[in-house]
Prior knowledge:
The complex is a heterodimer.
Chain A: H1 17-31, H2 39-52, H3 56-63, H4 82-93, H5 100-108, H6 113-136, H7 171-174, H8 199-212, H9 232-245
Helix pairs in contact in A: 1-6, 1-8, 2-4, 2-6
Chain B: H1 2-9, H2 32-43, H3 50-60, H4 62-85, H5 91-104
Amino acid sequence: MAAASINFRKSGIAVRDDIIASQTRAWQSLAAPGTWWTGAERVAIAREVRAARRCAGCAERKAALSPYAVYATHSAATDLPPAIVDAVHRIVTDPGRLSRRWADEVKADGTSDAHLVELVSVVCTAMLIDGFARAIGADAPPLPQPVAGEPSRRRPAEAIDEGYFVPTIPYAIGSRPELGLYEPNAFVPNVGRGLSLVPAAVRSARDLMLAHYMKYEQVVTDWEPRDRPISRSQMELVASRTSAKNDCFY
Amino acid sequence: MALRASSKKTGGDADITAITREVAGDGGVAHGKLLIELVDAVIDETADPAPARQRLVAAAGPGLLVEAGAVLGMFHLNDRVADAMGAPLDELMLDYRRKLGEKMGMDAGEAR
């Protein structure tokens, strides 16, 4: 079976090679067994991301004063357990009202903290790829075929409670060469460590970040994208407006 | 924070309130209104982004469309990671976040 690849040739729009390459790596990784979910489960999560964007129950909940004011009946596209479907739909359609209570409820329903982190990573990868395609007027790429195999189920012993909803790996530990999780001697914003209970998810996000935006360490510098047809101010305007529209608390 | 700083560096004066206004404006950034209209249309699943896309391409070319799409996609990821994982605000952003909240009429950044 051929590995999944992404291209935008049909759109007639020229897309930077490094964007295509990073999205292809993310898509292939999404289809493969992860650390806690199988490839089939990861692809099912991505399928549920697409269903959430058209889910009437999610629209009703989003319009409610509190996400707990309505019991959303989802237009599910998979046979994932209802609690997982609900978690995916909430992350997609109402991210600004996710809370510690929400994360605790997902975990209390039988999803481990590490499963939750990997689920978030898969949801976010699908959102990035579909959001990019929608922005440039391309069709969303077909979901990849799942790759058989078992998850590695390796939990990093270095992860501790740092005040997130889930354990994370501190910068001082994750930047050591043997882990290679964060750039050494560089600023890594807290969001860049959010997925570190699943190190592969951090590496994938870093790869996407480099092609689509910039290195984490460049965020607090006056770096300008001189080789791209966009200015830093334009990048930050798009980033800020997107975050505002996503009701991003951070 | 980066919007304001990057604008000043290039001699501009970006208006950060543009990011939360209902009606799109340039915010002191070249093609800012068109970029904001694109973001709004892409994020609203009931909207058709084609007109906003066409206006941006006509004014600035397809390269800016691709780059804007890349940043938008990345922040679909970053925003959700931050919110779903409960990422604490970074130290260097706390004071700025407080001042920004005052300027834009938002809360003072209470913990959830």
